[in-house]
Amino acid sequence: MNGFSTGEEDSRGPTDQICCLIENGDRCSKPAGNASYSKRIQKTVAQRRLNLGIDNNARHNYICDFHKMIIQCARNKRRRKDSEDDSNETDTDVPEVDLYQLQVNTLRRYKRHYKVPMRQGLNKAQLADTLMKHFKTIPVKEKEVLTFFIYTVKTNANKLDQKNGINNDTN
């Protein structure tokens, strides 16, 4: 799940419905999909300052695939800090990791490994959001990690190779 209520991936709402959003003062005329404009999505739109709003005359809250993709892209992009806007620096300090791309079982394994406390029954989007907050708090000593990585590559000391019985001395 990615924050949108979509049900089955290839099902669509009734064909006579159009997107419930107003963009730059004009109602969207694209056919509505099955993604709904929930409170959570409204909050994302407000935070990212997207010029979107719901048409109060619409009898539903379904949005088109075009606006769904705009909202998803805006949510996944990391906003720059104000201090970076003044300089010509890019956001190279903290690479963005998209946990939404991982499977639910992988997210659960991460949660179990790091013993991240959270309530039961979270959907994929909620799980990814919570784990992203945890992921960003993990301290990384870059110099140590890079040094160890280079050493591991140069010596072919891969734990997976050792488990599979591959001898490092034969290279």
From TrEMBL:
<keyword id="KW-0804">Transcription</keyword>
<feature type="domain" description="Histone deacetylase complex subunit SAP30 zinc-finger">
    <location>
        <begin position="15"/>
        <end position="85"/>
    </location>
</feature>
<protein>
    <recommendedName>
        <fullName>Histone deacetylase complex subunit SAP30 homolog</fullName>
    </recommendedName>
</protein>
<feature type="domain" description="Histone deacetylase complex subunit SAP30 Sin3 binding">
    <location>
        <begin position="102"/>
        <end position="154"/>
    </location>
</feature>
<dbReference type="InterPro" id="IPR024145">
    <property type="entry name" value="His_deAcase_SAP30/SAP30L"/>
</dbReference>
<dbReference type="GO" id="GO:0008270">
    <property type="term" value="F:zinc ion binding"/>
</dbReference>
<dbReference type="InterPro" id="IPR038291">
    <property type="entry name" value="SAP30_C_sf"/>
</dbReference>
<keyword id="KW-0863">Zinc-finger</keyword>
<keyword id="KW-0238">DNA-binding</keyword>
<dbReference type="InterPro" id="IPR025717">
    <property type="entry name" value="SAP30_zn-finger"/>
</dbReference>
<keyword id="KW-0539">Nucleus</keyword>
<comment type="similarity">
    <text>Belongs to the SAP30 family.</text>
</comment>
<dbReference type="GO" id="GO:0003712">
    <property type="term" value="F:transcription coregulator activity"/>
</dbReference>
<dbReference type="Pfam" id="PF13866">
    <property type="entry name" value="zf-SAP30"/>
</dbReference>
<keyword id="KW-0862">Zinc</keyword>
<dbReference type="GO" id="GO:0003677">
    <property type="term" value="F:DNA binding"/>
</dbReference>
<keyword id="KW-0678">Repressor</keyword>
<dbReference type="Pfam" id="PF13867">
    <property type="entry name" value="SAP30_Sin3_bdg"/>
</dbReference>
<dbReference type="InterPro" id="IPR025718">
    <property type="entry name" value="SAP30_Sin3-bd"/>
</dbReference>
<keyword id="KW-0805">Transcription regulation</keyword>
<dbReference type="GO" id="GO:0000118">
    <property type="term" value="C:histone deacetylase complex"/>
</dbReference>
<keyword id="KW-0479">Metal-binding</keyword>
<dbReference type="GO" id="GO:0006355">
    <property type="term" value="P:regulation of DNA-templated transcription"/>
</dbReference>
